[in-house]
Write a structure and sequence with these properties.
globular; two-stranded parallel ribbon; mainly alpha
Length: 152
């Protein structure tokens, strides 16, 4: 969510004036929701916002209520291994959630270590697409996602 949908880049749109708990939501671009909904796939929230994404974000960008990945407490051994290999804390749970199905993960925290781990542990197709948090999703990102989805 933060980064891909709520970019942190420069500009008045991304640095709204004012205060309050929802001022950062002014960075949301309502066109992004329409573009996500147009992709030939099932959308799922994979964010620490969990179901709050459905009540706070979805209506602002024109998305319906979506399924949510619930984040389990990590096993201590997995947490240590993830830290050692430099994995994002979401990597293992997303591969488990995908359950051998093809999936795309769009995030600003994805690294080469996550790419390598998913390639080694997920037998299905997977696209891990990193979006720089300063800019959020762009036309080029949507082209990449759409192309990957249609080449299946």
């Amino acid at each position: 969510m933060d980064g891909p949908l709520l970019p942190f880049g420069d500009g008045s749109q991304r640095d709204p004036s004012g205060t309050g708990p929802t001022v950062h939501l002014a960075r949301l671009d309502p066109r992004v929701g329409l573009r996500l909904a147009a992709l030939p796939c099932d959308l799922v929230w994979a964010t620490t916002w969990e179901d709050e994404a459905n009540t706070v974000i979805a209506p602002r960008i024109g998305l319906p209520r979506l399924p949510v990945v619930n984040w389990p407490e990590p096993a201590i051994e997995d947490e240590r291994e993830d830290q050692w290999f430099g994995l994002c804390w979401k990597t293992r749970p997303l591969v488990t959630w995908a359950n051998r199905r093809p999936f795309i993960w769009v995030d600003d925290e994805i690294t080469d270590a996550d790419q390598d781990w998913v390639s080694a542990h997920h037998p299905g197709r997977a696209l891990l697409h990193r979006v720089p948090p300063a800019r959020g999703l762009t036309d080029a990102d949507f082209t990449t996602l759409d192309h990957w989805l249609r080449e299946a």
